[in-house]
């Protein structure tokens, strides 16, 4: 059978997609590079040509997830009308309902270092969106926030902390919602909302 050679970026994306699927199904620790190459029907060396290690491949998977997630949220915010307060309230309602992160990723988000990397990437990707929203809220009268950039970092670090705690605890859905609601209320106090 003739050898199939794919363009570099297409092959790289195929490896990332296969790894994400396998990490989600079997967990990061139980998935070997050989398993990924076998599923793709390629030589093991092919994957190592693109990624030096399984950890590097994991980071590529997380980067891809983060980028797609951020693009969805940007489109969502662009399509949402209303004041900055209303838009932020909607974001936090989604956060409280677990709509801002994909539960299917939880199988490979078991290691604390992996969780930290994931939430750091998520926070960094949301930063420009949140800064812009806070600045908009300053102009439309939703709140009075003297330091939008620093406040956005504070909010996102808190969100990462809440999400990390969610992975570490075995709370009921109601307890999770209550904790997230308390966090949301704290954020609006920090923003000095006018409403």
Number of strands: 0
Q: Report the major sheet.
A: none
Low-confidence stretches: none
Helix percent reads over 70%
Overall pLDDT: 84
Task: Characterise the protein shown here.
- By secondary structure, the protein is mainly alpha-helical.
- Helices cover about 70% and strands about 0% of the residues.
- It has eight helices and no strands.
- It has helices spanning about 10-25, 35-40, 45-50, 55-80, 85-95, 110-140, 150-170, 175-190.
- The longest helix has 29 residues, at about 110-140.
Produce a short descriptive summary.
The chain is elongated. It has eight helices and no strands. The protein is mainly alpha-helical.
Features:
single chain, 195 residues, mainly alpha, 0% strand, elongated
SSE topology sketch:
Elements (H helix, E strand, L loop, with lengths): L7 H19 L6 H8 L3 H7 L3 H26 L4 H13 L15 H29 L7 H21 L4 H18 L5
């Amino acid at each position: 059978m003739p050898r199939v050679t794919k363009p570099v970026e297409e092959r790289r994306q195929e490896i990332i997609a296969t790894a994400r699927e396998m990490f989600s199904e079997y967990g990061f620790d139980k998935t070997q590079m050989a398993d990924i190459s076998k599923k793709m029907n390629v030589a093991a060396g092919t994957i190592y040509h693109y990624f030096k290690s399984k950890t590097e491949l994991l980071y590529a998977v997380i980067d891809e997830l983060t980028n797609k997630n951020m693009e969805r949220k940007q489109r969502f915010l662009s399509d949402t009308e209303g004041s900055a307060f209303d838009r932020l309230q909607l974001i936090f309602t989604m956060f409280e309902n677990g709509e801002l992160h994909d539960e299917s990723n939880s199988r490979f988000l078991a290691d604390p270092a992996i969780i930290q990397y994931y939430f750091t990437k998520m926070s960094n990707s949301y930063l420009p969106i949140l800064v812009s929203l806070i600045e908009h809220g300053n102009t439309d009268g939703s709140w009075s926030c003297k330091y939008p950039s620093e406040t956005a970092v504070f909010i996102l670090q808190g969100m990462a902390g809440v999400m990390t705690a969610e992975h570490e605890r075995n709370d009921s859905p109601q307890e999770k919602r209550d904790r997230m609601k308390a966090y949301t209320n704290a954020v609006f106090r920090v923003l000095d909302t006018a409403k």
